User: Fold this.
Amino acid sequence: MRTIKIFGISLKWRTLLFVIIFIGVGLSIFFARNQKKELTTVPVTRGSISQEVTVTGKTKAREVIDLAFERSGRINHIYKQTGERVDINDLLVELDDADIAVQLKGAAANVDAEKARLEEMKRGTRPEEIQIKQTELEKAKQDLVNAYADVTDTLNDAHSKTDDAVRHLLDPFFLNDEESSPLLTFTIFDSQLKIDVETKRASVGEMLRHWRIDLNQIQVTTGTPILDEALTTSKTYLTNAYELLGLSMETLSKNPSLSQSLVDTYRTNVFTARTNVKTALSSVSSEDQTITSQKLTVQKNIDELNLKLAGSTAEEIAAQTAKLKQAEAEVDNLKVQLQKTKLKSPIKGIITKQDAHIGEITASNIILVSIITENDFEIESNVPEVDIGDINISDAVTITFDAFPNEKFIGHVAAIDPAETIVDGVVNFKVTVAIDTTNTRLKSGLT
Assistant:
């Protein structure tokens, strides 16, 4: 290794380098200690340090209300137009309410009737009312007697029409009509239909004989139960006869061994017979229904008379009270429905949309009117996630608008969305700023 001589002393070159550095550091410390320092001083004052986050947004009304009808109907009147100011409960649009008004009158009348009935039940039945109900019962009983008086004639007429249809008009169809085994007078190619119609003719012939015996025994004085039974059995007999005529008509469509003229004649006879039997069945059924209905009327009058004689129980009064409340509830419901034909403003503000037209049919839940609050705006801004940690509820906000570049408005942070909003792939958080400065020049949508 190379050596260097200094002041007659031999030194290696690395050792020499260390000595030079050490001497340089020492000289620097010496001169630094002997140099005079000059300091700049300022007075200490108390103040606040603020950190600003700058974002952009647009003004929007604090409340934006879209109004629609809950029911469909024809628009009858429009009270406010776009741009007009409205107060709470101001009427905006009205539907035609004639149908509901009529229903409401009827419901109100029903309430009066139920209320009168309740008062009557609490007061008790007057003797005059009992007498009236007794008179109604006697009349209902007499009407029932009169209805039974026609039963014999109706049944005899029905038997006569059926007997003529089967034994006279249908006579050319069968041999041995009144025997136990009648036979068709012509051939058909449906053996089962042949068996069915011949069997039916035998049963109907036997039925007619029993029916005649039953009718001969019927007298009005023998009592109504026998007449009721006669009506029931007569309907069964008529139905069976009608079925026989239907089978007979069907045989004519199965290539019978008859000339066309005979087929036409037979068909005419069967058609006439079916018409007569159907008419008889209708008469008997009508008579039966009349008697059944009149029986119900008699029983109704009996029940009502017994009710008046017994008076009203606590349970009946409670039931009538419930009916009254139900009727009153219907009135309340119709009043609510009537209110739903009127669109009113829920806030004080300005109309920004009015799409209603007189005479137009509108469906439910179709927005017709929009209202915003007047001079009550807020700003929504998207703050990047890197700045959201510096923002807190109630933080002061200084606001400038492009529309008023030389003015400043004051606000505060009113809300911070807890969930993120992705804008162009970047995480942001929506911050709502309330504007504390009231100014009539502010409008929705200002930047």
